[in-house]
Write a structure and sequence with these properties.
Length: 568
């Protein structure tokens, strides 16, 4: 549709939602005539239209709640004085578990039912997830001073046994490799070595599918039935770059966080709330810690985000949306809310359009309006969205409303929403009045103005900014509030991020977990850091071993001897 600006006093931009959980990015429309306004309502190209409706995960696929039935496992004898078992003998009977649980109960305070986390001995005392109860008696070694029996590629079965058998036998560190291939189709990540389902054992009581949620639920059910167990470290090896995905419906890192929260709930010990130095292993009993390994891009993105020219809007309900330019022609968003202490809890992250230099406005009803320049042109576009209760945004298609540079959105002293931008030719400031009719924006009263553009990087006490890294690399994104000077814009820190050889110092220096192939002592052996080796064999046991020595044969006699005094 072409409408000449000379005959137009107002332009109604169609507001059509894409039925999806995150933005369907678009590209600039064909070059328009400078004297016309073009409304772009075409579909996004197929390589960009990646967003699909989110799917609910089945927390209990069997519908029968937690179960303690399944194949028993050899006991590693950790912290138990009884004679070590013969790994070639028949597995011990389930009845022995009650004896082991009784022994654990004498040394640890069991947690309460997950349905009432506030009553748990390990509940968050300040209502923040993952905080340990300061009243817990600090017995046992510090977590970074303990040793934990660990399996490598825990899903492969064979000499490892099933996941339940490993946990029953004293294994306290597991590893799942995960892929996001066809996430929107399956509604889940999938476990596998080289590809989804590859080398995955479904023997014993392992899940029947490769869906990650089912494997996580297996760990959660075992934990719920063994209150007071030693802390379980779950390594999630990212086999794909999850930052490729434009939103949670496609399996980005926010979707992974949501799955961890849904499956583990109060049992999850959050990385962002973990004490420094490490608490004792007894204070961590009954808890599960998740560590992200594998793909470096994903690990880095979990801890921080990069971008340029961020903009922000906050409404009266404390809801916040931040938008920014990737520096590569795409626009991304974060949604969150401001907590009582001034921190912002960020919920969702996704890509919503092609373009640069965005500005954003958020109504109290959750309606989102963004304006931006084209990715490679000076055309100006408006994109509408609706903030959903879960923090996702349903985005409409971009539509051109003018040409120019540096668009801004703000409310004048009379409460009128305005767009102020510069002419791309003369630098003259121009103003549009923006109203809404049936949730669609109406641009009217286009005129020159002497008013300064609105500051896009601040809104109602919230400010956002980017700290450049140098060398042309987009900077790290931060926010500030009246009580918070500077904090990163990032995913909720549920999981720890592991450092591996070759990582930049910016990642490795702040990591509380380090991992490397068996034998790499110098890299993992650091004060206050929990080290992990993978591929440990009998040849590695006559010297230094890290806290988590992961092996493919966790029930072999030589390994049993190594971890006999480990945390159970």
């Amino acid at each position: 549709m072409l409408i000449t600006m000379g005959t137009m006093r107002s332009l109604l931009i169609p507001f059509v939602f894409a039925v999806q959980g995150c933005g369907a990015p678009s590209v600039d429309p064909p070059d328009p005539d400078a004297a016309v306004v073009t409304v772009y309502d075409g579909a996004a190209p197929t390589d960009m239209a990646l967003a699909r409706p989110p799917r609910q995960l089945d927390a209990d696929p069997d519908g029968d709640g937690p179960s303690d039935q399944g194949s028993p496992a050899p006991d590693l004898g950790l912290q138990v004085d009884a004679a070590l078992i013969d790994v070639d003998a028949e597995p011990v009977a389930d009845a022995s578990q009650s004896t082991r649980d009784a022994e654990l109960a004498t040394d640890a305070t069991p947690t309460a039912n997950d349905a009432q986390p506030s009553d748990s001995a390990l509940a968050a005392v300040d209502a923040r997830p993952g905080v340990l109860d300061a009243a817990m008696e600090p017995r046992g070694p510090a977590f970074d001073e303990g040793r934990f029996a660990a399996s490598h590629n825990s899903y492969e079965g064979g000499p490892r046994g099933s996941i339940r058998a490993q946990l029953e036998g004293g294994i306290r560190a597991l590893e799942f490799d995960l892929h996001y291939d066809d996430f929107a189709v399956h509604g889940d990540y999938r476990v596998g070595h080289l590809w989804p389902g590859e080398a995955v054992s479904h023997d014993g009581d392992n899940p029947e599918s490769a869906r990650l949620s089912e494997w996580l639920e297996e760990v959660a059910r075992w934990s719920a039935n063994h209150e007071g167990h030693g802390p379980v470290t779950l390594i999630l090896d990212l086999k794909d770059n999850l930052t490729d995905n434009p939103g949670p419906a496609d399996g980005n890192l926010g979707a992974l966080n949501a799955q961890l929260d849904a499956v583990f709930g109060a049992r999850l010990a959050w990385a962002g709330q973990m004490e420094t130095p490490w608490p004792t292993t007894d204070r961590l009993r009954g808890r599960i810690m998740v560590v992200l390994s594998g793909d470096r891009t994903g690990r880095q993105a979990y801890e921080r985000d990069q971008g340029v020219r961020p903009a922000v809007a906050k409404n009266a309900r404390g809801q916040v949306i931040e938008v920014h330019d990737s520096g590569r022609g795409t626009l991304w968003y974060w949604t969150g809310h401001v907590d009582a202490d001034g921190h912002i809890e960020w919920h969702h992250h996704g890509r919503y359009a092609a373009g640069r230099r965005p500005a954003v406005h958020l109504t109290d009803g959750g309606q989102v309006m963004t304006v931006h320049q084209g990715a490679v042109s000076n055309r100006l576009f408006v994109t509408m969205g609706q903030l959903a209760p879960d923090g996702t945004v349903q985005w409409g298609d971009p539509a051109q409303y003018d040409t120019g540079v540096d668009p801004s959105l703000g409310v004048d002293d009379d409460g009128q929403l305005e767009d102020i931008h510069r002419s791309e030719l003369t630098g003259q400031l121009w103003r549009w009045t923006v109203d809404f009719i049936d949730d669609a924006p109406v641009f009217s009263e286009n005129e020159r103005t002497e008013s300064a553009p609105y500051p896009v990087d601040q809104s109602a006490g919230v400010r956002v900014f980017s700290v450049p890294d140098g060398g042309g690399i987009p900077g790290m994104l931060y926010y500030g509030t009246e009580t918070v000077d500077q904090a990163p814009i990032r995913y909720r820190p549920m999981a720890f991020v592991e450092a591996q050889p070759g990582d930049p110092d910016s990642l490795a220096d702040r990591a509380r977990f380090r991992a490397a192939p068996a034998g790499a002592e110098d890299f993992v052996r650091r004060p206050g850091v929990v080290g992990r080796w993978w591929g440990v064999t009998e040849a590695h046991v006559d010297g230094y071993l890290p806290q988590i020595p992961a092996t493919d044969t966790p029930f072999a006699p030589w390994y049993r001897d190594v971890v006999v005094d480990g945390v159970r």
